Give the backbone structure.
Amino acid sequence: MTSSAELPQAPAHGACASCAVYNAANLKKLGIKPGNYDYVVAVAGNPNTGKSTVFNALTGLRQHVGNWPGKTVSRAEGGFRYHDHGYKLVDLPGTYSLLSTSNDEDIARDFLLFGQPDVTVVVADATRLERNLNLVLQVLEITERVVVALNLMDEAERHGIDIDVRHLARELGVPVVPMAARKGDGIPALLEAIEQVAQDGATAKRHRVAQRHPRIERAVRDLARQLERAFPGLPNTRWIALRLLEGDPGTERAVRDGTLSDLSRAWSARKTAPTNLAGTLE
Amino acid sequence: MTLDQLRQDDHATVVAVDSRGGDRRRLMDLGLLPGTKIRVHMKSPLGDPTAYLVRGSVVALRRSQARHIRIEAHDAQEPT
């Protein structure tokens, strides 16, 4: 499987289509003009994991704001073509969690919940994998269409950290691509993984946090059903139900005043991270 | 014992996070969960804030935050 490609790109074994050089040649960077696109790809991850480096490597963009203050989000969209398909890439603000309360984190979360990208690339820092897996697991709760880009592998190697990528991919149930995006290592494998998830859709066996009590499970199901009735077409009702059970005030408000449906409509219609986001869940 | 009482070079394990709401969420997102190994990385001159080493990352906390994290301290010699 492509997801477990070794870090130093393996030389071509005759089969042209699986060769890294061949695949990289199929990449056409489209900068900020994605044109007609077939798939929307979100790039998420903890702060400082190299999301923007990955983003730039795929779109060919060079100038790009690295940080997001307060309420505004710099427009971070780009595009590329790969094997005759157009991809629109949306770079999300760095976040440790989808449950926290800062503004940038709301934007990342709302886009994943309601924008429903075809693929979500979670960029993880290989030198701090344990902490980064928190976000990976949270994203897996929302969508199974995930590729984990295990970035900074060169740095991890320097620190003597050895990661069993194959095992990690098996445990998570989604492709894991080891990368050193700064040097361009792993980009061909990432493209292949993105294409695979975009076209084949969900992998059947993604990891989900399991130890849920049957009573909680019943409460979630009941609430989710009510949410579906109140907000027809609303995605991820189970996730929202869990937040309500937690007593999350932002979610409560959005359900009570009906802004939840506006949110989901706005995001799914645009499939884009707006420059100035007025209403988020919070 | 709470985290703000942990001395330089001592190792500890988080027992509970007693803060509430968003604060608690944030700490847990940064990897401070019951069972997590933690130690002091650097202290500012007055000890507030203090930087801690958690799961390979450095996390700086104010004393008012560290006070809500209950820990069990170990000897410095014990491997983490």
